[in-house]
Amino acid sequence: MKKILIILVCINLFVGCAKLDLNPLSEGSSENWYSDETEIGLSLNDLYRTYLWELESDFNAERMSDNWTQRQAIDAFPAGSVTSTWGRGTDLWLNTYKGITRANTILSSLGNAVGKVSEAKIKQFAGEAYFMRAAFYSRLIFYYGDVPFYKETISIEDAFKLGRTNKATILASVYEDYDKAIASLPVTYSSSELKRATKGAALAFKARTALYMGDFALARDAAKACMDLKTYTLHANYGDYFLSKTRNSTETIFAIPRSFTLGVSWTATNFYTRTAGGSAVAQPSWEVFCAYTCTDGLPIDESPLFNPRLPFNNRDPRLKATIAEFGKEHLGFIYDPNPTALTVLNVATGNKVANKDNRAIDTFAAYNGLALKKGVDADWSDDKQTDFDIRIMRYADVLLMYAEAKIELNEIDAATLTAINMVRARAYDVPVTSTTLYPAVTITDQTQLRKILRNERRVEFVWENRRFDDLLRWRLAEKALKKPIFGVLDPAVFKTKVVDKGLYFFSQTPQIDDDGIADFSALQAEGTVKLLVNRAFDKSKQYLFPIPSKEILINKNLVQNPGY
């Protein structure tokens, strides 16, 4: 039986791959491969490559959320133009099944290594494969619903006959795989192996899957078990955590590393300000800009501390750590999108230079006046390249998942509040017990606390690819992804209607609704903001991705999701 086993062997974890040439036709075979530690390790390494984690790479999930603004362009998903030929959905499907096939092959072939590799090492390898298979199937059922399901190495002919298995059946298997991974994986590795899946990663991913699927008791217990390992802590400084210099932080539970040394980096030009030599293609949205509460813990439309003229003042510190503050140094220059600021200071030289982040000077400066600061290093400036890790799971997420599960179970107690407050206190750079130094959460009403938790997740994980999933699972996409995207008026009009009237930056305070979503309709009505592009999420179909059309064409047993 011909097997789908065309094995790609990584030369190292993140540098090019070559087809294995051990058999005729250059096809690896499970009959004589996976027989020693090196061969199994090389095969597992492919599961850590970025192509299998593409929603987390290059902010791909963030592009589909309401945290993102990209001039007057819009991603296909929030534009409502997704079809069964949608490239991102097709690639996600294909690559995820590649990962599943590899994990299945490894698991079915580990017997080849018995007697040649230690039992402890075989157990670890199996744990990694179980972890990966569970993570990949979790992804598929979240985005696509019922999907083809297999746990063995199968022939191409049989693969083309698979129909869709009920996601509840798959989910039960996912939990079993996570449990096997939890039982098999070590809590930590040696310093040279910190990037591999661990027991904590398996617990955290199980918690995420359970939370997404509404299994709140399972989510609570898995998150708590991860916390009880006492292996992870919050990084001391929120802003520093995201810099490329920060490696192997005790907050990081699972990440895909990138490294200039290994030749794997990422082009940052689109997110670098124009004065500093970037292109400023995409920015944090106004919606997320307004999501940060004031230092009294209240939304901007409720707090007496908010001043729409000085929107960075008296705000949650994560705002200034995420979005460049107006009039302050950023990437070696004073950042100022005000149309009257024709020049700005080059901090290093002390000289004034043309302000290319002002749309009166440069048409393609940020269309909404905002610039990303989170994770942006000054060392990007030489070649606009960065090699920061792709953080897929961190301890702050575990804490907030634990709190959310407890809230949904209505088990609101001191542990629930402490989990939220640990994350919030870190943002204010104070101990969690110093409750007078930050807006500690004390509310125990389920409805109100749910609102606080959801906003806490949003501002904590801005541009970390978590918001998109949250919008889908909370069924808020139909609201958030139908709101128009706004930006500043064209320079001359902006100066006349806003700046010259003393109304800069916002002419009035945007309103925040019960779901924490900003409403700019009043500003639009008075003509002080510009409509950049409309969103058009279709709730009748878009809570699930379409099955790729090419899969439907070659497999008559596959049925398309409704609406596609």
From TrEMBL:
Keywords of this entry: Cell outer membrane, Membrane, Signal
One of the record's GO cellular component terms: cell outer membrane
Domain RagB/SusD: 255-564
Main location: membrane
Compartments in which it is found: Cell outer membrane
InterPro entries to which the protein is assigned, alphabetical: SusD-like_N, SusD_RagB_dom, TPR-like_helical_dom_sf
Highest taxon of the lineage: Bacteria
Coiled coil segments of this chain: none
Keyword Signal among UniProt keywords: yes
Classification via Pfam families: SusD-like_3, SusD_RagB
Residues covered by the SusD-like N-terminal domain: 44-210
Keyword Nucleotide-binding applies: no
Family, similarity comment: Belongs to the SusD family.
Protein name: Starch-binding associating with outer membrane
Organism the protein comes from: Pedobacter insulae
Taxonomic classification: Bacteria, Pseudomonadati, Bacteroidota, Sphingobacteriia, Sphingobacteriales
